[in-house]
Design brief:
single chain; about 290 residues; alpha/beta; six-stranded parallel beta sheet; globular
């Protein structure tokens, strides 16, 4: 798999299946390397990935992430193999431990120690038998990693990491832990809005739900953000570090900062100025590979 430098991260459950297929085709037409989609309270992300792969020709489809509590390791590994065989190696599997409220409260599972649980899961995936035709090349697995121990595990037992809600400083630290030869694919929020008050208000709205989840909060604290930064919807310093807002060039500069810090691939998630969760296709078309800028 040759993963280009820029992709799109989008909440596909806000679209119907037909709308999602058409959106994926536009993302492919704009020249992005990959389309990333989450798994939370909507569609089975492997099933929907199959739909998106069937409706595109060259686009890589990547769960960011497939919840390991949603299926056992053999089901995950064999779903990954089947999707890669069917699509000609266009499926990049991202796996993660999700968050305690979504696992214990929503799914009714015990939420284990994240690194220990992920280690056992990756080992079981690697050992899973598969009797169907093999994909054309070895499928790749990356891990949703934020802290140093999960990042190290991503380099040890997987093909890299997919950090989410991170500034370039985290990307530099992650590359130092992963070392060379492992994929590093951070997600970056983008917002085409140069009015600071409007931009920060929209960014606070987009980040609000994540600021209630311990995994993200703990990582932000590791990066030096304190109580003053994390209260009241987030300080200006916090918002500016985690959301690339402003002009086209300002957003492009933030993306370059992640590349310069060691990212192989940056997946951008647009904040829609209308407050909806739908991607802002205007900014996606503007920032597309090969577009002016």
């Amino acid at each position: 798999m040759k993963l280009g430098k820029l992709g799109v991260w989008a909440p596909m459950d806000v679209m119907t299946a037909a709308e999602g297929a058409a959106f994926a085709q536009r993302v492919e037409g704009w020249g992005y390397a990959a389309l990333w989609l989450p798994e939370s309270r909507g569609r089975n992300v492997l099933a929907h990935s199959a739909w998106l792969l069937a409706n595109t020709k060259d686009l890589i489809v990547a769960p960011g992430i497939a919840n390991i509590y949603a299926r056992d390791p053999m089901a995950m590994a064999n779903g990954q193999r089947g999707l890669n065989e069917q699509s000609g190696a266009r499926f990049l599997l991202g796996v993660g431990v999700s968050h305690a409220p979504m696992v214990t409260g929503l799914r009714g599972h015990n939420y284990g120690k994240p690194v220990t649980t992920m280690r056992a899961y990756l080992e079981a995936m690697a050992a899973a038998p598969y009797l169907a035709p093999d994909p054309p090349e070895r499928p790749l697995t990356i891990v949703a990693a934020l802290g140093p121990r999960m990042m190290a595990l991503s380099g040890e037992l997987a093909d890299g990491a997919h950090p989410y809600n991170v500034p370039p400083e985290h990307t530099a630290e992650a590359r130092g832990i992963l070392g060379a030869g492992k994929l590093l694919c951070p997600e970056v929020w983008v917002l085409l809005e140069s009015d600071a008050a409007k931009a920060r208000s929209a960014a606070r709205q987009a980040l609000a739900s994540y600021m209630r989840l311990d995994n993200y909060v703990n990582n932000w604290r590791r990066l030096g953000f304190g109580d003053d930064d994390l209260g009241g919807g987030g300080s200006d310093r916090f918002i500016d570090a985690n959301v690339a807002w402003g002009s086209e060039e300002a957003i492009r500069q933030r993306i370059r900062e992640h590349w310069d810090a060691g990212a192989d691939h940056v997946c951008i998630q647009s904040i829609n100025p209308d407050g909806s969760r739908r991607p802002d296709e205007k900014v996606l078309a503007l920032l597309a590979p090969g577009a002016a800028g």
